[in-house]
Amino acid sequence: MGMEQLLEKASGYMKEQDLARIREAYEYAEEAHRGQLRKSGEPYILHPLAVAEILVNMQMDVVTVMAALLHDVVEDTNVTVDDVREKFGETIAGLVDGLTKLEKIHFRSKEEQQNENYRKMFLAMANDIRVILIKLSDRLHNMRTLKFQSEESQRRIAHETLEIYCPIAHRLGISAIKWEMEDIALRFLNPQQYYRIANLMKKKRTEREEYISELIDRIREKLEEMGIQGDISGRPKHIFSVYKKMTTRNKQFNEIYDLLAIRILVDNVKDCYATLGIIHTLWKPMPGRFKDYIAMPKANMYQSLHTTVVGPTGEPTEIQIRTWEMHRTSEFGIAAHWAYKEGKETGVVQGSFGDKMSWFREIIELQQETRDAAEFMESVKMDFFTD
Ligand code: GDP
Q: N or C: which end of the chain has fewer CB within 10 A?
């Protein structure tokens, strides 16, 4: 993907004047990185460009996209933070500086030092949360291009991604990035299991497709009768989540029945509950499997209705119902709430959304109180790994 395509994509939600600023940042970065290559042998600039694209796909603001394009210039070229400040202003310089500092963190094997490193990472995020959004996008692209690294680096990076970056993505509700990173990490850490599950899923999916599409037709008919606009689709599970279920719950592959589930997207909350009613009159719900994450959102803001029904063939079938807006949040989390606003230059999460992110503030406060890095990391880890 080149600059022109990036601008084309960004033009879907940005104004001309912002597109011009993005082009300026690109030209600056392109010149600074000129002559440098990625391990893949491609011109280096393709990396920041790819990172910017991931952020544009999440409809992030102009400042974030510019900082993404510039994120490696201080680290890898002669350009200084002062140069960036002079040319692009304080906010972008701050983001680039934050990312450069994160880049310098070398994850060592010794537990204590590693904890100190994580602590630094949380500190870098505290100033402007956009730092971590760029960092996650950066890591995602590095994972996508992991095959060009040495085998040792592949394992180290994949491990670090699973241990540190995936939990952060989960906490911020950015499941689109989390899921892709988890699947790639598994592919490098346990290729045998990865490809085995991938193949089994492919086979099973073909078997199930007809069954699912019958159910979808039935739901569609009913929704039309009730005058509800809904988008109904089959939703494949991610390989890592199947793997996790098999390992943590000690299940065989053929014991996992929700490989292909159904997702219904509707216009508003009222329609969510009406659709749930329709589903439960069509098929019997399985006891204990109904979850109302609309009335009680998850800590990462995820909202949806979950139910598992006994389908016409007796097979349990998982169904998710949510609004389009909830769907955006379920994919992009905090980034979805970063509604693109003109002139928005602050990276501090505010308002009701800020309240929901209070865990984040608590972490920052905690780190200010805790002298001992290991102790701090223990508390953060606990927070991260429980839902
Ligand atoms: P539950 O018992 O119904 O909550 O089941 P799970 O926790 O196993 O979740 C079932 C499915 O819901 C998952 O496979 C995801 O597709 C979706 N889900 C659950 N939690 C989240 C979340 O925090 N974010 C997103 N995007 N999806 C989620």
A: C
Half-sphere exposure of 280 (CA within 13 A, CB side): 16
As for the ipTM of the complex, it is 0.93
CA–CA separation, 291 and 314 (whole Å): 21
List pocket residues of ligand 1, CB cut-off 6 Å: 175, 241, 291, 298, 300, 302, 306, 330
Write out the catalytic residue numbers: 75-76
Residue 215 · residue 317 · CB < 8 Å: yes
Q: Whose CA is nearest to atom 21 of ligand 1?
A: 302
Atom 10 in ligand 1: residue holding the nearest Cα? 306
For ligand 1, the distance from its centroid to the CA atom of residue 286, given in whole angstroms, is 17
Domains of the chain with CATH codes: 3-173 (1.10.3210.10), 208-329 (3.30.460.10)
Using one digit for the tens of pLDDT, what is the confidence trace for 221-278?
999 999 999 999 998 889 999 999 999 888 888 887 777 789 999 999 999 999 999 9
Our mutation pick for probing the ligand 1 site, out of 239, 296, 304, 356, counting the most ligand atoms within 8 A of Cβ, is: 304
Neighbours of 291 (CB within 10 A): 15
